[in-house]
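User: I'm new to structure prediction. If I give you an amino acid sequence, what do you actually give back? Let's try with this one:
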Amino acid sequence: MTQLIAIFVNVGSISIMYNLITVHPAARNLRLLSTALNRGFSGAMLWSPYFAGMALMTSQLGLSWSTILPWMLFLAAATIVVSVLVEWKLLFTKEEASIEQEEKQPIQKNYRNTYISLALYLLLTISIVLLLEQSISYPMVVIICFSAIVFPFMWSALVRELSNFKQGVKNHLTVTLPSMQKEITLFLSAGFISGAIKTMNLGTGLVELLAMINLPLSFTFSIATMLLIVITAALGLHPIVLVTIIASTISPESVGVSPYFVAILLLGSWSISNPISPVSAVNNILASLTHKDVFQFSRYNYRFTFFMGFIIIGYLLLIVR
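Assistant: Good question. You get back a string of structure tokens that encode the predicted 3D arrangement of the chain. For your 321 residues, that looks like this:
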């Protein structure tokens, strides 16, 4: 559910799902709850057109979202499978709730219509983005901005919920945007840094350095890129910095791979580094909601990142090429 909702509401999915799930006392195991939310969000990063990483891939590598999407669905499904497997023992261990929260009475209500409406909304949103991408020549970023504003307004008018739409716009302008100042600054800084590095031809030097290793260049490039992004993310550097630099300075042809190979590698590396990063928005939201140390949530996901890294590298070298 987190992966599906995060596709459209990004980090807003974390607080939404947290409050929905913790209604039930049995769902208050801190590790299971936080890892489910974190890894669901990680899966959405792989294929959602509403995430900055995808916008970066489509703009820097000249790819369309609809052509990247089929490659990413396998990895998105893999995040769910791996997440379950690494927590398998804990799933069958009875532990006391580790999240303190006021007791809430479960709401007795038939949510069938709500779920149907949500599924219809998600399906229509994806269809509209695909249709616009194929029918007009505007960049994906512009298409996403247009669909994110116009379609919710039309939907709210159709279901007669314009008052909620107005309240949502107000919250977005007064709460969401101000809370994302750090992310906006990081994106702008990463853009300036990558532009400066591009003029220095640093990408060419890095490729020549990797070529000195007596291994296939595509293999060394994949391993080096993933390790660099994951390790620096764990140490506190936001993945956007290195992802932007690599995408804008190293051409796929120079390392003997296709643009899709680079897109999957960078999106995958960003996705699996996000759960272990102490500066990620998800971990900081979880720390705020639970009043726990942000590094605690990072440690929960080390094994997940390790195994997903192997799957992504194997997928790239054996299937994508």
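You can read the tokens as a compact description of the fold. Here is one thing that stands out. The mean pLDDT is 85.
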